[in-house]
Specification:
Layout lengths: L8 H10 L3 E4 L2 E5 L2 E5 L1 E7 L4 E9 L7 H22 L3 E8 H8 L2 H8 L5 E5 L4 E6 L1
Parallel strand pairs: 5-6, 6-7
Antiparallel strand pairs: 1-4, 2-3, 4-5, 7-8
Length: 139
């Protein structure tokens, strides 16, 4: 059973396509032992000079709850789980956490954001909700 999509799922999909990515899976289904996991999106971008491409997986989060901290804790737990499974099953794929632009900016302006990026615990992709565009990849 596929879980419900995040509120901004379709906006992130559109933003990735506008940014030159080809969506390959919606969702990306991973199975490890008796468990099945669903990463929101998988995409690729062909790079002729490399005779291949870049492969990403993107977990979309709205951060619409009352607490940024609680939303972040849930998102980071899910991110860590998916990253571990991807490292085994699709090691060429890089996982990103998609955040609305205003949430990404707020988080990265705080010491916690610097800590997360400095320790390479998570990669973020910021998106503009209204324009349905990618605004930044971090790092």
């Amino acid at each position: 059973m596929i879980p419900a999509r995040d509120r901004f799922h379709d906006k992130v999909r559109t933003a990735l396509e506008k940014d030159g990515w080809t969506i390959t899976n919606d969702p990306l289904v991973l199975t490890l032992g008796p468990r099945t996991y669903f990463v929101d999106l998988a995409a690729e971008r062909l790079i002729a000079a490399e005779r291949g491409g870049r492969y990403i997986a993107v977990e979309v989060k709205s951060f619409l709850g009352e607490s940024l901290t609680a939303d972040l804790e849930m998102a980071l737990g899910q991110f860590a789980l998916y990253r571990a499974v991807l490292e085994v099953q699709e090691p060429e794929r890089t996982l990103y956490l998609a955040l609305p632009e205003h949430v990404r900016e707020k988080l990265l302006s705080e010491p916690l954001g610097e800590l997360l990026l400095g320790r390479e615990l998570v990669r973020f992709v910021g998106f503009n909700v209204e324009r349905e565009e990618i605004t930044e990849w971090t790092p």
